[in-house]
Each structure stands twice: as structure tokens, then as C-alpha cells.
Amino acid sequence: MIVVLGAGLAGLSTALHLGGRACAVIERESEVGGLARSACQDGFCFDFAGHVLHLRDESVRALVDDLLGEDQLHVQRSAWVRCGDRLVPYPFQTNVHALPLEDRVACVAGFARTLLPRPRAPGARLSFHDWILDSFGAAFAERFFLPYNEKCLAADLTTLSADWPERAIPRPSLEEAVRGALGIADLAPVGGNATFRYPRSGGMRRLPEAMARRLPPVRKEARALRIDARRRVLELADGTALAYDALVATNPLPELIAMVSDLGQEERAAAARLRHSSLACFGFGLRGALPHERHWVYYPEKRYPFHRVSYPANIAPSMTPAGMSSLSAEVSYAPDRFPPPAGEEERVLAALIEAGEIEDAGRVVLRRRLDLPCAYVLHDEVRRAALPLLFRALRERAIFPVGRFATWSYLSMEEAILQGKEAAAHLRRGS
User: Fold this and answer.
1) In what order do the strands lie in the sheet with 23-26?
2) Interhelix angle for 9-16 vs 413-429, to 10°?
3) Which helix (H) or strand (E) holds 239?
């Protein structure tokens, strides 16, 4: 028996790819999906953070086509960066033609200097802060990359490592940067989500729900308390004990380590030092249509508490009732500041009005806050040292971490699905 702890995309993918091997999926929430859930109320639908499907792997594209069929949209991205009173097309690094001339010159000149040979000490590791400066130059960094990522990750970037951003933040060629500064419009779309897919109705939750329908019933509202690794038994809060041959875990790694009965102080201390940030999504249902067709806007400026505002119905019209619209503002927090303090919703609403996103509070017909206590895992030197120790200890006990939080890695939805597929392949081989 394989037990899968967590019915997010990684856990459901594992179960789906096990090829009929006996499997039980355990989920503590009342619905499947993990981060890919959606909350719907009075005809308005909001995702837990902004999620779109940008798929590169042919097997995942085939799976999504099989699961969603015609119930999916193929969308050309409309994303922007708010700089003062200007909107710059995203990616920022290839579109600064929207900025004043002196800013464009500073950005391109600074980027060009990053292409010159620079001495570096052998074995030196850059912080995320320094990687941004080295990759884009000071002007690009100061106008977008540094303030935006500080807000999004709710962390000091000098304390984070640079072992993840290259695949998430595209670096242009000098020609692309220059052409972008000149406003030459024949550039190919840049970035992994230049085009993306999205469910036609019901929000992103439709994908994990479709996966779950292919499986035996997921056991929901089942909270795992303890893993007896010696006996290979998972103990639930309701007193149930599930015996397993292998346990696939998708819950946050510090939580997982704390649950394993026979781990020592070294592993527990290493897991306790892992860092993350939290997120609240403030959703507002609005009377009337939006005056634009943008999908989302990044907000690097510190005067706004949110780092991104997205517009669900501009991606899928079914996300709001007819004649209505909505937006979702994402605000990140250090864990010691989470959940948001009293009055935070009003502060976010006031900032949205100041930014011109909402004309006045009288237009709001619905409010919905979605909390993600563990949203972004933080890559740092502590993580680099801890993961080999923790993964080795878990594997020795037939416990296999899969997905963003169990592997403590910055993963896309596609990568979570692929990790589940890979874990299932190993389990089928008995390796």
C-alpha cells in the first residue's frame, strides 16, 4: 500500500501515475488542490494566489488535455509592471520603452556593464540580491527586481541564495534589452508564461478536481498526527492507523520532520531553521466591468502593500457574475506577522483606490480573503545544508517528499505534476 499525504497537484499526480497500484490519498482540507484551490461565493471565484498553467513538457500537456478537454482556455499573456504612474509591459527587462528616456538609458547601460568579464573568487556564491545586480545591472534592479522580490518574498534578499532564479527570471540578450528600450515591437514573447492555459470555468481548482475523479475517493478532512517510521504506520487525528509500504508526503518539510517518530535532534533542528513567507490574497467583487483587459500587474513600489493585482474575469469571464468584475491583491508577510493584523483589508482597499484599481469603496459588492500560511519557500544557505540530511533520513524510512513544500523548492504547477509522475515511476519499480 502506498499512502499519499496531501491532495495537491504533486500528491494527486503521484497517485494518478501509480498505474493501479494500491494507494490511499489523505487530505486535511475539505477539498483537493492544495495551492491550486479556488474559493467561489455568490458567483465570484478567486484562486489561492494567481495561478496559470504554462506547460513545456509534452506529457503534462497531454495529461491536461485529457483531464480538461474543451474546458480550458489558451491565453496570450497581458501582464504589466506599475512604475509610478506608468504601466510597463512585462517582462520589465525587455520593455522599458515605456519609461522616461533617462531611465531607459540607465537600464540598458547598466545591463551592458553586466556583460563585461568580472573577476570572482573561486567557489564564491552570490546572494539573490547580488545575482539580480550581476544579471541585470543597478538600474533594472532598483526600478523593479529588488523592490518587487523583497515584497513578494517578504525577506531580505541578501540572506537568500541564487540557486533558483535563473529558470524563473529570464535574462535578455543585449539586443533584446536595446530593442525593448527603443520600443521595437517585433520581439518574441519572453518568459515561460507568455502563453498559458486556464480552466474555462470554476477557477484553477478544476484541474485537481479532474485529477481526483480518476482516483479512488480521496480521504478528506483527515489530519495526520504522527508517522511511526519503524512500524510504517501513519496515525490520524481521528485515531485511524494506516499501514504503508511507502509514504509519499507533500506537506511542508518542517511539519513532516516533526511528525516522524524516530528522527533525532539534528534533523529536527535543521528542519526548524528552514524559512518561508506567508501570503494573503484579498479578493474584491466589483459592480460593473473593468476598463481594461489586463491579466495581472506587478507593484514593486513600497507605498502599496500588495506586490501583484490580478483580474480573474479578464482571463476567464466565468469567474464573475454577468455585469460584474473582480480583482485579487496579493500581500506577502514574514511568518511572525501572519495572519494579517486587524484592519489590513481596509489598508489594502485604500491602497487599491489610491492606485486607481477601484474608483471607490462603494463599488465593492463582495470581499473574500484567502490565507496561505506557507506560500513561498526561501532558498538560503541553511536550506542548502539541511536538505541532503533531511532527504536521506526520510528515504531511509520509506518516506518520499514530493512537491513544493515537501522538497522545499521553488516549483511551478507543471514541475509539481512532474515530480509526482517521477515519484510514481520509482515506486512502481520498487526503487
Assistant:
1) 23-26, 2-5, 246-249, 399-401
2) 40
3) none
Q: Could you give all domains of the chain from N- to C-terminal order, each with its CATH number?
A: 2-36+57-71+203-274+380-429 (3.50.50.60), 88-117+124-155+162-187 (no CATH), 276-377 (3.90.660.20)
Over range 33-37, report the average pLDDT: 95
Element (H, E) at 25: strand 23-26
Q: What is the DSSP string of 405-420?
A: TTTT----HHHHHHHH
User: Do residues 347 and 340 make contact, with C-beta atoms less than 8 angstroms apart?
Assistant: no
- Rounded to whole angstroms, the Cα distance separating 96 from 144 reads 11
Distance CA 253, CA 243 (A): 21
- H/E segment holding residue 147: helix 146-153
Residue that has been written with the C-alpha cell 475517493 in this structure: 217
The amino acid at 321: P
Cα(335)–Cα(342) distance, integer angstroms? 16
pLDDT digits (tens, 9 = 90+) for 180-222: 999 986 555 656 578 999 999 999 999 999 999 999 999 999 9
Cβ–Cβ < 8 Å for 46, 326: yes
Residue 299, CA distances (Å) to 181, 210, 290, 370 in order? 20, 33, 18, 19
Confidence check: pLDDT of 117 > 90: no
Helix axes 128-136, 146-153, angle to 10 degrees: 150
Q: Contact, 283 vs 42, CB < 8 A?
A: no
Instruction: Write down the residue that cell numbers 482597499 correspond to.
Output: 349
What is the Cα–Cα distance from 148 to 131, expressed in whole angstroms?
15
